[in-house]
């Protein structure tokens, strides 16, 4: 044991060291214009590392504008986790696809990251001589109705500003507005002058076709007064100058829905769309009464989750369906908003055999390639097996009927003879028993029907769906027919069983009331029940039939 521990300890130390030596790299954005800076963040949780990463590999493609270090100590469930971050401001020297190379910190190395540097439009520098100016731009000049257009506001300042800056709220009539991520701050060189940039991005969804006008946006800020004071006796800092700058008015052409789009389909203008499904558990070995959860996920680039329609329900004969509330989520990216809608439903097979699930088809308009598209999940067939635990047990003493094999039908004469002999023998035994005293039937191997009925009554009146289902299955095993057969001919029982299954298989059925089920069990026609021959008195009937 000591030798095993001695061998295991170095392995654990090496594993912990490898995990601690991890150095991860990330950037605040992966697409930028020429002359703009990007922030590279290096993070490690290795407390044994000292110093800072080697930035020599960056000098060929980037100008390092600044580096700052941030140390953090987080406590989670009593465990302390220390992290160290280096935030490095980089100015790319080239346009196009530029790779941030791996950086070294001790034995750890970061992964490479690729950023796209787009050449700037020379027109954006026309106001670069002003200390503060604002620029507004759209990613496209025309969009379809309810499709996404991205508005970018950039505020440039070559002088320092106080923290009292403000921007007028973006308000556009007949349009939905979603802000994309948080406000970004970075630097950009314009005509050799370094400017600070404040960037905000919005997703705009016009609700009507025609011409949409985006009004000018006004930015207000107080400049830091860097001029020397004229009054030598003045005490304290001098107030700065208040600046107000406005962007230009931007027109946006909104196109109506194409005439080729299906009239009965929800309008979905998107850049890309994906449809996927998952099962828990997988349905390959399902049985009658088993609960499966099917999840359908619709993920759309260019639309918010609130704009996504409901997916077709799994309304199939042989499957009971218990849907959950849809899960909606939004995610911001460089190309706008990505909305997702996940719909989950519990499916319970009510019969064995093959159950066909239809194709799930979603119609949408590809705004990037400007044409109609279909995204679909193929049809599939579920093979449902019988559930032995739900089969009705054959009562003791019942006559077993033999199934005649088709291969031996030519033995019909022998079969007829055997049947005649057994019939005569049975008739003789019945005649003999006719004159015998009445006797109790064989003792049951389980609880009496009255006891099982009492169990159902107690569980249902206690509003306990699990105990009620167990008592109901035990009672059904002593009945001449299955619960499904009784529910098929007695509607109150069918409705009560649906309510019980909903409480068992659906996350939303948390407050089940068992009074309806108990009332349905009590009111099943007496001729369809298995009667307790002992009765309330505990004696056999006076005149047996």
UniProtKB/TrEMBL annotation:
Domain DUF7939 per the UniProt entry, residue ranges: 451-526
Parts forming coiled coils: none
Keyword Transmembrane helix attached: yes
Keyword annotations from UniProtKB, A to Z: Membrane, Signal, Transmembrane, Transmembrane helix
Pfam families membership: BatD, DUF7939
Membrane spanning residue stretches: 410-431
Signal peptide segment: 1-20
Tagged with keyword Metal-binding: no
Alphabetical list of InterPro entries matching this protein: BatD, DUF7939
Name of this protein: DUF7939 domain-containing protein
